[in-house]
Write a structure and sequence with these properties.
The protein has 2 domains: 1-199, DHBP synthase (Alpha-Beta Complex); 204-291 and 328-390, GTP cyclohydrolase II (Rossmann fold, 3-Layer(aba) Sandwich). The protein is 36% helix and 23% strand. It has helices at residues 3-14, 42-52, 62-67, 100-110, 142-152, 174-184, 191-202, 255-259, 267-281, 292-295, 298-309, 314-320, 331-339, 352-360, 380-388, and strands at 19-22, 31-36, 53-60, 89-91, 120-130, 159-164, 188-190, 204-213, 216-224, 230-236, 246-252, 284-289, 344-348, 364-369. α2 crosses α4 (100-110). The protein is elongated.
Length: 399
């Protein structure tokens, strides 16, 4: 993530300039020109039509869409990426609505806090798009990116965008976009950078204390994430700004295992073993994530225990309650590591999903280190399910 890229883009938007936003390579892998609706001008609209050549749309927040009575164009959205097009509009003070000047007028009025639904004729020549409230952290689309950037600029939550096509009519991909950005002298940012920036900037350390334990002296840092949850980092030694990979355990909260020593799972012993291994090296960190019961919370976790006592396994029990088999996310782990100045880890885990997710969010996993614990009669079937259904890398054999 490059903080400077995002901040430079926001500065340009505030100045009324256009920027380029590229989405993920595994999504549309396309780029859009983006500007703030409040600063739309005939010149920038004309630039879009002449050089970008795509469809000019106006992303708006859900609240603005509601205020202006902008509902989705169709109740059954079959678009692959669920782009939330509304009925097209022209401002009532325009004539045909198609000139660069009149399209700029319509876009500006979408950003006017005094505008009302009756101020727009339908259909028209500008296509509003409704952004998800969670922005790019919920949906990684240009619609959400544009509105998130408008928020960062301190402006009304609406923007205008246009896909970038090459002269031959094909879509400009990332390598093309880098060349185009240099040619047009405008900032280029990716949705991945924006998502990282938003999540990264929302995490704040609220407390940092010394924590002497039976395994040695640790530092305990409490971060508060964007949802207000307390996330913990237990560390020992110099972990910041070091080229050598850091020994790290990403541990999801388990009250029954961590506190009461439950033999239903292996969590408590894994936590204990991770502390021992870090203390032995004198350097490392444990991320204690508040996502109890594979992300479904303590109450639902205990409900799955009830189902397991009736014959279901841990995978089936989660699904029976209407959840995914595993609701946990590890993006928060990557952001906590970045906050702690860690970019390269030796990861204590049996879960390949943790490796994949951390790498996806920019953390280099130099090594995966197995962390197997005691097999009890009570958790043998549980461990077998983790191996067979969750694909954890465990040595336990079949019953």
């Amino acid at each position: 993530m490059t903080v400077q890229n995002i901040e430079a883009a926001v500065t340009a938007l505030k100045q009324g300039r256009l920027i380029i936003v590229a989405d993920d390579e595994n999504r549309e892998a396309e780029g859009d020109l983006v500007g703030l609706s409040s600063k739309a001008a005939a010149e920038t609209i004309n630039f879009m039509t002449k050089h970008a050549r795509g469809l000019i749309c106006a992303p708006v927040s859900e609240q603005i869409a509601k205020n202006l009575n902008l509902w989705e164009m169709t109740k059954e959205n079959t678009d692959e990426y669920q782009t939330a097009f509304t009925i097209s509009v022209d401002h009532k003070e325009t004539t045909t609505g198609i000139s660069a000047f009149e399209r700029a007028k319509t876009i500006q009025e979408l950003a006017n806090i005094h505008s009302q639904a009756a101020d727009f004729n339908r259909p028209g020549h500008i296509f509003p798009l409704i952004a998800k409230n969670g922005g790019v952290l919920e949906r990684r689309g240009h619609t959400e990116a544009a509105v998130d950037l408008a928020k960062l600029a301190g402006d009304t939550e609406t923007a205008y965008i246009c896909e970038i096509l090459k002269e031959d009519g094909t879509m400009a991909r990332f390598q093309d976009l880098k060349q185009i950005a240099a040619e047009w002298n405008m900032p280029l940012v990716t949705i991945e950078e924006l998502a990282d920036y938003l999540a990264y900037s929302s995490i704040k350390v609220n407390a940092k204390v010394k924590l002497p334990t039976k395994h040695g002296d640790f530092d305990l840092s409490l971060y508060q994430d964007k949802e207000g949850k307390d996330q913990l980092v237990l560390s020992m030694g110099q972990i910041r700004d070091n080229e050598e990979p850091v020994l790290v355990r990403v541990h999801s909260e388990c009250l029954t295992g961590d506190i009461f020593g439950s033999h239903r799972c292996d969590c408590g012993e894994q936590l204990e073993k991770a502390m021992q291994m870090i203390a032995a090296e004198g350097r490392g960190a444990i991320l204690y994530l508040r996502q109890e019961g594979r992300g479904i919370g303590l109450l639902n976790k205990l409900k799955t225990y009830e189902l397991q006592e009736q014959g279901a396994d841990t995978y089936e029990a989660n699904v029976s309650l209407g959840f995914l088999p595993d609701e946990r996310r590890y993006d928060i782990a990557a952001w906590l590591l970045k906050k702690e100045g860690i970019s390269k880890v030796r990861l204590l885990t049996n879960n390949p999903d943790k490796v994949k997710d951390l790498q996806q969010y920019g953390i280099e996993v130099a090594e995966r280190i197995s962390i197997e614990t005691t097999i009890y009669h009570e958790n043998k079937h549980y461990l077998k399910v983790k191996k067979d259904k969750f694909h954890h890398l465990l040595s336990i054999e079949g019953e």
